[in-house]
């Protein structure tokens, strides 16, 4: 079986109040994935439920009742015969819940005694229970032991580690770690109101919050500068134990950026002391169609294969417009935790009957990049038909509102051996009204005072209806998938033909999309096997380390794209960055304490992958 990231599920819409109206977008993030009673259970944020699967390819969405489904970063762990659940809240103590059968909908509540954000429960082999949390630019990741019967703290919480963004390049915020942090103007306006009252100022006369911050006492001023400045959130803890060692994973750098990673610390005890692992960031996918691989969970499947699931980003309609990804992971001969995100949003083989090769290269290549595209209409030049083949989820085609039968067609140039197609539907919304009538029916147990009237997650999704067709000549069309009348709402629908099908043209005719007057798509991604030669290897590679955290790369080549690999040993090139067209790149994700890095640049086209030579990075500092 094959799947393709982002995972193909019906991501729910969320309304978030903005002034007198609301923005609307789909979201799922921060996934906790576990095995329980022979099935796979995944609990993501803002799903109003959970996902269950017997094979990690085909997922069913189940609704949760009576649990705080509006609280972010739900954590689930198996403890004995129970599955334990908790989620984030800062305005009150966070409760725990447990069940022997999540699909029964019956959960037992355990009264909470402290608040937390981004929780993670861990049960050690000796039955002792530990708990980790943290989501802040001004506080560290915390840990504490819990009483497994009462879930109360045993002893005081310990600060385990904080950010080291000046030495750990991957912790820096911004696109490609450029440290240009998005400003949250709504949050800053709230601060202006509060600080003005404290300082006796008229908020209407304050143009920028930093005017007030400069007037604060030094300790508070430094706190506010760190809060608002390019300091990363330390968040999303997840503990994994392997061969007696403890691996505490965490996210940093910002979920709205392409570089959202998971790092990892190691220790000989659940509460440390922790030291940074050599392989960092552990989970990192800044390139390709949909980047991001932070804030997730690591687990072992029923065949003992390791997997890591995490958050991918779109962040166009809202910074929290996010999706879910799943990648092969594991531990190497030295006990170093790794995750393979090479070609990580291309089709991935998942054979549930045997052990996986976590470094297996793709069976099929990308055929659609940069190909000719025609459409029935397009709204404007920035939303042209060509955007569906540019491998960028932040650009899209949008048909005219008055186009009653919108269609879009990709021309591969010749008939090609197609094995998979991923259709990525996009949302392009203006502000909408909050759905007051539906909000009034919300379960009050699921809401806090902070949420009431400000957010709403749709219970029922409108379907995405369309027709997918193929043709050899652009005249005679054959149906590949008829979804004109389905009730499903899959914005990243995925189709596989393992034996292959031969077509030159692929056409999508959109019948309807939720909340859209016409068609809107970010990607028609076609995978298969070309009949030509793989590209020549890259030449004239230069790799220079220009600081402890940054390196410049340049090369020559004539391929469609390149997979940049690097690592701290020649045979541990565990990090990757996929680029199209570019022949130079600055990587800003190094760790300054690591004295030597190695790099390899692989070239790919629709016919195959050609490995480059592994070279040491020259230190030019």
Describe it for me?
With 621 residues, the protein is mainly beta. The protein has 4 helices and 43 strands. The model has no long low-confidence stretch (mean pLDDT 94).
Summary, kept brief:
The protein has 621 residues and is mainly beta.
Question: Helices, strands, pairings?
Answer:
Layout lengths: L1 E2 L8 E7 L2 E7 L1 E8 L2 E7 L3 E5 L6 E4 L11 E5 L2 E5 L9 E4 L8 E3 L9 E4 L5 E5 L1 E2 L4 E6 L6 E9 L23 H15 L9 H5 L4 H11 L5 E9 L2 E7 L10 E6 L7 E2 L17 E7 L5 E8 L8 E10 L5 E3 L8 E2 L15 E2 L5 E4 L21 E2 L8 E19 L10 H4 L15 E3 L7 E7 L6 E6 L8 E21 L7 E10 L9 E7 L5 E6 L4 E7 L7 E6 L3 E4 L10 E8 L2 E3 L4 E2 L1 E2 L2
Parallel strand pairs: 35-43
Antiparallel strand pairs: 1-25, 2-3, 2-30, 4-5, 5-6, 6-7, 8-9, 9-10, 10-11, 12-13, 13-15, 14-17, 15-16, 17-18, 18-19, 19-20, 21-22, 22-23, 23-24, 26-34, 27-29, 28-34, 29-33, 29-34, 31-32, 31-33, 35-36, 36-39, 37-38, 37-40, 40-41, 40-42
How many DSSP E strands? 43
The unreliable regions are none
Query: Kindly state the mean pLDDT as a whole number?
Result: 94
N-to-C CA distance: 47 Å
User: Strand pairing plus helix content: what structural class?
Assistant: mainly beta
Oligomer: single chain
Question: Could you tell me the strand content as a percent range?
Answer: 35-45%
Which features does this protein show?
mainly beta, 4 helices
